[in-house]
Specification:
By secondary structure, the chain is mostly beta strands. It has one helix and nine strands, in the order βββββββββα. The longest helix has 9 residues. It is globular and about 30 Å long.
């Protein structure tokens, strides 16, 4: 599937979140990656993979999150607001380093629980 000239293309990073307000009738077509979509006052969770399309069928808030790097073709006549939030940075340094140091068997100052 490829996007045509009258479509907008979004390249989303892993974990990037897009908020659409009042986007009824907007069609999302995934060309790369996986999207998770949830709609306000709707119990469905929609997951799109490459080649899948979904037309937003209600007003209100729509949240779209990229589950990995993704490319999406967007066809919309009117959207009240689009807000893109960059993905959260990974927390690999602080907690993981502390847990690794706590369990190091060769470290004489390692943590030992006191009961």
């Amino acid at each position: 599937m490829s996007c045509t000239a009258d479509m907008k293309t979004w390249d989303l990073a892993a974990g990037e979140l897009v908020r659409l307000d009042g986007a009824r009738g907007t069609t999302l077509s995934v060309t790369r990656g996986t999207l998770w979509i949830t709609l306000q006052n709707d119990t469905r969770d929609i997951v799109l993979t490459p080649g899948d399309s979904f037309t937003i069928d209600r007003g209100g808030l729509t949240l779209i999150e990229a589950q990995g790097p993704a490319a999406v073709c967007v066809v919309a006549r009117y959207v009240d607001a689009v807000r893109r939030r960059p993905p959260r940075p990974a927390r690999r340094g602080s907690g993981a380093a502390w847990f690794a140091s706590v369990g190091a068997a060769d470290d004489p100052s390692r943590y030992a629980p006191y009961y």
